[in-house]
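Hey, can you fold this one?
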Amino acid sequence: MATHSHAGHMPSSGKALVISAWLTGIYFVIELAVGLWTGSIAVLSDAFHTLSAVGGVLVAIIAQRIARRPADMARSYGWYRAEIIGALVNGGFLLGMALLVIWMGAMRLGNPIHLPTGPMLWVAFGGLVTEVISLGLMWKSSQDDLNARGALWHIIQTFVGSLLIIVTALVIEFTGFLAIDPILGMAFGVVLLWASIGVIREAVHILLEGTPEETDLSAVTADLRAQDGVLDVHHVHAWTLTSGKHAFSAHLRHAEPADAARILETAYTHLTKHHRFHMVTLQLETDCLDELHADDLDVTQSMGPQAELHEPPAHRDHLDSAAPDANLERNSKGNDT
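Sure. Predicted structure:
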């Protein structure tokens, strides 16, 4: 039993990404023109940071559009994972930018240069306006969308970059302390490095079919075992199709075949309504099948105290040992006759 659907319209995060891409792209052209006109290295550097944000948002938009394609015979789960791949690409992009910022800061720290503060301030204030609008549009959708979160960090990067330009310009203007530029740049590079590693780690976890972070698999298994008529739950699996859409599968052993429909409906309703799984697949069985070849994938055997309730291996041993006895009994009856 399963549920599966694809939205036919663009989600709110998609609209936010498109608007942010336009705002950031237009501002990049303006900032690049000002940088070339004034010859300010700081402004040109921030312009290329803005360009990286435009690239990051475009990657997120493309990934989201691909993910909306329906499932087919070649891709039975659809294109959902395109968003996760997009997030992974964005995470790698952020990681590269972080290392570049740290390296550039370290190089400039040994030989700080004088920066024209006037153009820096005007460009930075203009950037703050577009970046605040973009952050406001994308913030909510990024909380449960890894793809949008990767793009959001690109916008945050340019937003903090604008703030650093303002602080740098004011410090240089009033104190003449030129090293403030590389020091603040390297500090932000470390923050960006931390953020990029987080995005990459989460994307890789999803691509490796890891259990969703918000899912307590032991609790889900215990809920199913507590259901009336269920004798055993094993081969439990939970994974993420894409951000906000989790799937679940399990084998449930029960005693009475007549109870199968009731057990299935109750378990399915509980998993989708209470545990919020997007897609559920349950295999009901009165006898455990021969699954020894897949025991290494059965996490219920290592769930601590609850593992004692897991009976398939012992049950299979019982069937194996009982089979010779049954044959002997049939043979003895045949001899008696």
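The two ends are 50 Å apart (CA to CA). Let me know if you want another pass with a different chain boundary.
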